[in-house]
Amino acid sequence: MMAAIKGRDTKPEMIVRRGLHRRGFRFRLHDRALPGRPDLIFPRHRAVIFVHGCFWHGHDCPFFRWPKSRPEFWRAKIGANIERDRAARTVLRAADWRVLTVWECAFRGKSPEHGEAALDEAAAWLSGSSGDAEIRGDDSGAG
């Protein structure tokens, strides 16, 4: 069953890719040479973007729930993902890369404007010089 889960070209990732491309940003995809294999790489801006699913990366939002079946397995699996994400960010920062994490919940809203605001925020971050950041969804879960 888990073999069917995609690690790239997911719906949230495609939204980010299309939205940033539409805003004039050009990027590379899934560079294996970089720690954590970031989803989007912007060498010109010395920046990378990770697009994380709330479930698989253990996001503390209303869309994440610990599974009731096989809880030990899921805690170990998701915990390892969280630790791997943390290690990749640390190595990227040490190599002078800026890191943006865009969470799936940023695009889970009732209106298209919800996602557009997240894309505008990502574009502003790329154009600026601020350090690491993350874009989260509405914490109410309503969008």
TrEMBL record:
Keywords assigned by UniProt?
A: DNA damage, DNA repair, Endonuclease, Hydrolase, Nuclease
GO BP term, pick one: mismatch repair
Q: Which CDD domains match?
A: Vsr
Name one molecular function that GO assigns to this entry. Answer: hydrolase activity
- One Pfam family, please name it: Vsr
| Domain of life per record | Bacteria
InterPro entries noted in UniProt: DNA_mismatch_endonuc_vsr (IPR004603), Restrct_endonuc-II-like (IPR011335)
* Record carries keyword DNA repair: yes
Keyword Thylakoid assigned = no
Which NCBIfam families does this entry report, sorted A to Z? Answer: vsr
Q: Which family does it belong to?
A: Belongs to the Vsr family.
Task: State what protein this is by name.
Answer: DNA mismatch endonuclease Vsr
Native source organism of the sequence: Qipengyuania atrilutea
| Taxonomic lineage from the root | Bacteria, Pseudomonadati, Pseudomonadota, Alphaproteobacteria, Sphingomonadales
